[in-house]
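Students often ask why we bother encoding 3D structure as a string. The short answer is that it lets us treat folding as translation between two languages. Here is a chain of 352 residues written in the first language.
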Amino acid sequence: MSTERPDDARPPSGETLIEFRDATRVFGRGDRAVTAVDAVSLRVDRGEVFGVIGFSGAGKSTLIRMVNGLERPTSGSVHVLGHEVSALSEGRLARVRSRIGMVFQQFNLFQSRSVFGNVAYPLKIARWHRARRRERVLELLEFVGLSDKADHYPEQLSGGQKQRVGIARALAAEPEILLADEATSALDPSTTAEVLALLRRANEELGITIVAITHEMEVVRSIADRVAVMDRGRIVETGPVYDVFSNPREGAEASFVASALKDRPTPQDVARIRRASPGRLVTVSLKDASAVGSVLGRAEGIGVSFEIVHGGVNTTKDSSYGLLTLAVRGPDGAAEKFIAELSAAGAVREVV
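And here it is in the second language, the structure alphabet:
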């Protein structure tokens, strides 16, 4: 049996694999209507890892289910692999779905099937030849580090091992897109790191385009290239991970990012810091760490001293960022000059 990809599931030439065009999904009617996804427009390009973050109930799960047609927009459209999935018949939608893998929060493994059987299942449904199916499963078990667990059953595996089986199964039919729905939420931090490293390998070594929805900042920081922040069904911010996290928007729209980062001191923190470390409080961005370091290195010459009293450094897939709050001490004129030099370096976010 041929495993050739169906012609109408191949994307046309071009880089955008997923595109939402003013897509809205409403559940219920009248007074009971709930808008889960509200006029969303965004794109995901070939080869990237795209993260979608937000509080529970923000609409993330509905958004990802619209990619594979499990939910269809009430208005607007969703285009995947060159097809408007929201308008496809079930037969043609099934062909597009065959090019999309899915990793679930709760693993969704067949308890009555071995690890080998779980990974082989989608290939059996796709009617791959038995010999090719076996070859592919063994390749994937080696890729996820479970070659020695082929004959084990899910109840014999740890949570991290179960998720690795889930990833192998999602990759079985050589998809172009992998959807990860809170894939690490049920795992401990150490196991989460292992699973994220595996997803990163799938992207970098296999060229899989990944869409990961999560409420865990570490997931997006570790593997994503770009991120969209969802709030009450809307995309309130989108861009490269570094840009969104290093310079989050002010106000309610940034509530998720700001609350998760916790880099800027709260009013309660400020009161506590003032009791322990008198001085001018200055919050600086480390977006240009070398420029900030240069100014800090001249502090003594300017006639001031400083103490780091809040904040820290975080890392993304490719870089570092963070906010530091300094307690600056010295004569008023010297302190003003020091803060002015930090401002000239584009670092000052707030002076208290």
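Translate back mentally: The chain has two domains: 7-99+175-259, 267-351. Keep this in mind for the problem set.
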